[in-house]
Amino acid sequence: MEEIKVGLEVHVQLVTLRTKLFCSCSSDYRGKPPNVNICPVCTGLPGSMPALNRKAVEEALKVVLMLNAQPYETSYFFRKTYFYPDLPKNFQITQYDKAGGYPLAHDGSLKLSNGKTVRIERIHLEEDPGRIYYEGSRATARYSLIDYNRSGIALIEIVTAPDMSSPEEARDFVERLTTILSDVGINVKDYEGALRVDVNVSYAGGERVEVKNVTGAASVEKAIVYEAFRQKTMYEKGIKVVRETRAWDEKRRITIASRGKEFEAEYRYMPEPDLPPVTVTESLIQKVKDEIGGSQEERYRELISDGINEELAKKISSDKDLFNVYEKIKFYEPSLKQLAANVLANEISYLIKRYSIKNLPEDVSGLAEILQNYKMIPDHESAVAYLKKWMDGERVKVSLKTVSAEDLHDDIMQTISENYDKIKNLEYSKKFEFLMGILIKKFGKENKKVLVEELTKVLNKTK
Amino acid sequence: MNLEGYTLQLILKEIENGNLSPEDVNEFYHRRSADLNRVLNAYITLLDPEKSRPEGDLKGIAIAIKDNISTKGVRTTCASKMLENYIPPYDATAVSSLKKHGGSLLGKTNMDEFAMGSSGENSAFGPTRNPLNREYVTGGSSSGSAAAVAADMAPIALGSDTGGSVRAPASFTGIIGFKPSYGAVSRYGLIAYANSLEVIGILGKSVQDVSLLFKMIAGKDPMDSTSVNVELMEKNISKPRILVIKSFVELSADEVKKEFYSSIGKLESAGFEINYADKFSLTDYMLSAYYTIACAEASTNLSRYDGIRYGPKVESAGNWRDYISRARSFFGPEVKARIMMGTFILSAGYYETYYLRALQLRKIIKQEFEKIISGYDAVYVPTMPVLPWRIGNAIEDPKIAYAADVLTVLPNLTGSPAISLPVGKVREFFVGGQFIGLKDEDMKVLKVAEMAENVLQVKKSGRN
Amino acid sequence: MRYSINKLSKLSMLKISKEEEKMIAKKVQALGELLEKLDTVEPPKEAFVLAPEGEHKRDDVPVQFDSDEIIKVFNNVKERYLKGPKTL
Ligand SMILES: [Zn+2]
User: Fold this and answer.
1) Has residue C63 been placed in a domain?
2) Which of A149, A247, B14, B431 has the fewest CB atoms within 10 Å of its CB?
3) Range of the domain at C26
């Protein structure tokens, strides 16, 4: 088989954001009724203006750094004009590397499993269009149904050089990229349609054909297999492949010539006058670097070298937040790391799921307090309650009077003698209950366990 | 009760003193507007006076708003068939600022469609007529706001200025028109024509009036990323240092020139320090840079009007391309011409030739302006090179209207504040002069203009 | 300067009526003449923007706009969907 060349344009939704790229509408659109997360900005009403989400730049920079790309100190937003009903302004706000513009970053790379390096030409920020539905099929529907909930969601586009030479390599690229994205918390796998790929394929040095809107790594591979086969067949029949845009039909597993919005290649790019340039300072890069931390693999290795068992290490390394807490506790008091690992992988993980907690507190001193006094907490239930308190951001103080069994023995004897008249005629269980009442008042509930043990001992002896 | 010639400040003082009630004031302007609108066509939408009286500095006084500034629940047409029935679901930031200060809405004023024009003739609702002579244009594009203020159909009005759209009609109707620095007033809710050039401005009867309203609507707005906080402290200037650019004055018609030079004489004898620069080397390029940038921005801004979300409901036969083209036929000819010119400018192969060169020119013009103004408080030049023309003339020859912008586009290219005031009189018309300052030094040009207004006293009829 | 009114109107998705055609051509011609002056200017490398100084970014905090108000603006609505034209 002759050589094929594959380049990818990967669109990734920044799913860690709570709002859209240019307006304050919630970005949580999946499973919502149509047109609930909309405002004048993301529906392109007259007079509305975009305002850039600060965190979008930071999240995008995380990916830039993970892909070894170089951020430009100043980058610009551009208008890309084309008419289509899912695009409320009939232009998309994106970034551009021509016409005097600069994208967010350039010249990155990603290493494939087989050791080959794929060059990344540029990474830029842009807005997602809305979504169109049809009653029946697109071909037969009498009208379109448009939902702008997705309109304005923040995307990054990662553009590679045509460095992949097989469908498998392209699939591997998307899979490696997905792992890297999850290392910075962008778990595209959890969000349907959060990663969409435009695939450029050329066969035997012929024209390149763009296959638009392929979702997921497996489909990327299938689309390229089909497209390479199609082009090969044409090549062998002596038919010239034309430069065109095709669409991937997931159901039929074929690519089809697409008409519609790609009809006109005249995008009429111009700088977006309503948005100042994006400046990326050294201190912003440093801030983002601090937030990134390492990869899951690095985290796992560190936990193992700390002597944490594989099962716990796997669980903690898979979640960057859990790992960060582990690191902080380790720094705070190294002797607590084993217990911390246990609690993080079990109780805290359970609580995160149970109460769908989004963020763990920055300050771990409350957690350290709990861990230091962990043995003294009478039962598991109270321990979990303390942990929940910390996770809710409340102040935690485990106030335990530490009493030894020896101290208790004297106190118990004294209590008995002081109340001897009252208890001498009571039967055992009533006697026990009466004395426990007084002792609990004196030593607190947290000492209940040891009190029961000691009192039983004493009463059994004196019986 | 007759409030003809009353300034906003006088009205507020009379309310304070108990001689007027806000209801009386609003009733007066409403009644007069309803009467005069039949002949002057200043309002596209005139609202019934509000019953409730809001608290605040403006005491519930109703203000006229140009119909390209979004008003929640009140239709905002841009004087276009395209938005004939469009009712915004939100207020422009400038409008909510006025409401916060106790202002209310008198009506929405006529304008050149999508603010494209210098005469007030390009409106789908018919031309605005000049109160000074109804056969003549008011100037544009804030034509209705100017006519309303000049004819006492509003105490004060908001307009917008992209290439002179506040100052031109102020000059043609003999009132004050203030274009603040770029970004000094939020553009959020101002329906965009050319984003990088325009700003919301104020048309009023006195410099103090526009200054008062400016301070209410100025300030950085998180919804407009290009907005800034400009200094709002009153400036003290004892002897204004003024620079007159002769090449600008020379572009004007003789009767304008004569009145303008005579105003210089009066200012000089009142203690203004007058200096002259022979020329501004880029004078010939200003209109080219302006129209290139404006058309390019307009062509993308106006892409959104496709009849799908809002705007005209058109027959849905055929495909989406037919649908959109049918809806977009609702634009008027001036708008279509500028969209097409902008499309041409931005198309592949021409972008570098025209658009990037226009941006480059703009940069050089800004640098030269900053150089030339240094050491002076303001530049002083005529606002319009000609007197108002008869309604219909510029439709015959579009070059007349484009050329009339030659003296007003400079502050839009540089982002400078500029204020036009009547400085002379020819027959029934006034000659406007404008003071232009350094970007963000709005209070300085306002102060200079106020001093000049006191010296020149062109409109003696106004009561203060 | 080479442009055709026909091509520009198509690109801009503008339908132009016979009656308008002459007037628009005249306006485009007048604007075109203004542009010709730019032929002598040296083009810059970067786009120039009147960029204000300071921080202009928004925090990532959701603010709910009353979406029913927007739906009221829409021309044709079906079960909260905006009803648009056929896309084929
Ligand atoms: Zn929104």
Assistant:
1) no
2) B14
3) 5-40
Cα A150 to ligand 1 centroid, rounded to whole Å: 9
Provide the token pair at B407: 């003296």
- Give catalytic status of residue B181 as yes or no: no
Whether residue C83 lies within 8 A of chain A, CB to CB, comes out as yes
Residue A435 sits in the same domain as residue A327 = no
| Whether B171 contacts B386, CB under 8 Å | no
Question: What pLDDT digit, counting tens, does each position of A229-240 carry?
Answer: 999 999 999 999
Contacts with A404 (C-beta within 8 Å, 6 or more apart), sequence order: none
- Looking at residue C71, its pLDDT comes to 97
- A302 and A208 in a common domain: no
Residue A276 to residue C52, Cβ atoms within 8 A: yes
Picking from A15, A16, A17, A19 by the largest number of C CB atoms within 10 A of its own CB, the best residue to mutate is A19
Among the residue ranges B185-189, B295-299, B358-362, the one predicted with the least confidence is B358-362
Q: B163 — alpha (psi -120 to 50), left (phi > 0) or beta? A: alpha
Measured between CB atoms, which of B226, B309, B346 is closest to A43? Answer: B309
Q: Which residues contact A446 (CB under 8 A, 6 or more apart)?
A: A376, A377, A378, A382, A400, A401
Can you tell me the ipTM of this complex?
0.95
Inter-chain CB proximity A83 and B324 less than 8 Å: yes
> Do A276 and A352 fall into the same domain?
no
**Distance from residue A17's CA to the centre of ligand 1 (Å):** 14
Question: Do B291 and C34 lie within an 8 Å CB cutoff?
Answer: yes
Among residues A321, A372, A374, which one has the least CA distance to residue A349? A321
| Residue A318 placed within a domain | yes
Q: Is residue C68 part of a domain?
A: no
Domain boundary residue among A284, A313, A343?
A284
Is residue A397 in a domain? no
Quote the ligand 1 centre to B216 CA distance (angstroms).
27
Mean pLDDT of chain A: 90
Residue pLDDT, tens place only, B236-267 = 999 999 999 999 999 999 999 999 999 999 99
* A177 and A235 within one domain: yes
- On whether residue A385 sits in a domain, the answer given is yes
Residue in A closest to B186 by C-alpha: A49
Q: Domain of A425?
A: 405-462
Read off the tokens for B45: 């939408």
Number of domains chain A contains? 3
Please give the Cα distance from A451 to A438 (Å, whole number). 11
Whether C54 is covered by a domain: the verdict is: no
Which ranges of B160-239 would DSSP assign to H, the alpha helix?
167-173, 207-217
One domain, residues A151 and A132: yes
User: How many domains does chain C divide into?
Assistant: 1
At C57-72, the pLDDT tens digits run 999 999 999 999 999 9
Q: Do B196 and C69 touch (CB under 8 A)?
A: no
d(CA C24, CA C13): 15
Look up the pTM and report it: 0.84
Question: Which of A363, A391, A419 is the last residue before a domain boundary?
Answer: A391
Residue C34 lies in a domain: yes
What DSSP line would sit under B371-413, residue for residue? HHHTT-SEEEEES-SS---BTTHHHH-HHHHHHTTTTTHHHHH
- Asked whether the beta carbons of residue B360 and residue C72 sit closer than 8 angstroms, the reply is no
pLDDT of residue B464: 40
How near does any CA of chain B get to the CA of A100, in Å?
8
Same domain, A23 and A110: yes
Residues of A in contact with C71 (CB under 8 A): 35
Is there a domain that residue A398 lies in?
Answer: no
Question: Does one domain contain both A324 and A211?
Answer: no
Distance B63 CA to ligand 1 centre (A): 30
pLDDT bin (cut points 50, 70, 90) of residue A1 is low
Annotated catalytic residue, options B96, B165, B206, B420: B165
**Catalytic choice (B59, B66, B179, B205):** B66
Query: What average pLDDT does the segment A261-282 reach?
Result: 83
Question: How much distance in Å is there from the Cα of A130 to the middle of ligand 1?
Answer: 11
Predicted confidence at residue A346, as pLDDT, reads 93
Q: How confident is the model at residue A64 (pLDDT cuts 50, 70, 90)?
A: very high
Neighbours of chain A (3+ CB pairs under 8 A): B, C
